[in-house]
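Thread: quick sanity check before group meeting

JM: Hey all, I'm pulling together slides for Thursday and realized we never actually wrote out the predicted structure for the chain we discussed last week. Dropping the sequence here so it's in one place. If anyone has concerns about the input, flag it before I start.
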Amino acid sequence: MLRREQVVEAALRLLDEVGLDGLTMRRLAETLNVKAATLYWHVKNKQELLEAMAEAMLADCAASPPEAAPGLEQAIELAGKLRAALLARRDGARVFGGTYVAQPNTLRFSEQLLEALHEAGLPLRTVAWGAWTISYYVIGFTLEEQALSTTTGAGPQRLRAALDPMRFPQLAAAFSHLTDGDLEARFDHGLRLITAGLRAELATKAEPVRPADRHAAARRERRRRASLV
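JM (edit): ok, ran it. Output follows.
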């Protein structure tokens, strides 16, 4: 009897073969030698399938605790593990980025990341928003990284050809850095910028300032008048 785990494993193998655009429920059913309707006993639609695939991709990522001591260095380590998990599958970032998974592997990883930021001494809201910021950065970076692997250098060549130093002097000056192929160094640099910002919040212990409420003064005046009646 076909099991849900077999469906997910076959979907991940098919993803590596044909990419996300080629992954369809019909094609997956053909791979498993079953009718498409059979798949819907295990996943109700393609979105649920993608969520199950995203959860499976994080199995190794969440299997063992980080080696670094709790804190921002541990958060950096976890970000690296997430990137590695997404890079391990073709279009892994596209699959993961389109999901909102609430299953064991994803929850364990999220718990570890939140705990690392909490142990760094950050305020609770900064812990939550910092975890989102790190996750968004990893997904976005990996999405571009995987896209670059399909351009075979054409992207930088088109950019160079389009750059008129007179019209775009900053782009022209920064071209070599913008197209630097050392993705490990580039990823680490961006992650360090994020954690530097978190350290700055740690120094002040400040929560983000809410925008001024333009109507607060009017509400206070109405309450004052009501209390006089």
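AS: nice. Residues 68 and 222 are 55 Å apart (CA to CA). DSSP finds twelve helices and no strands in the chain.
JM: adding both to the slides.
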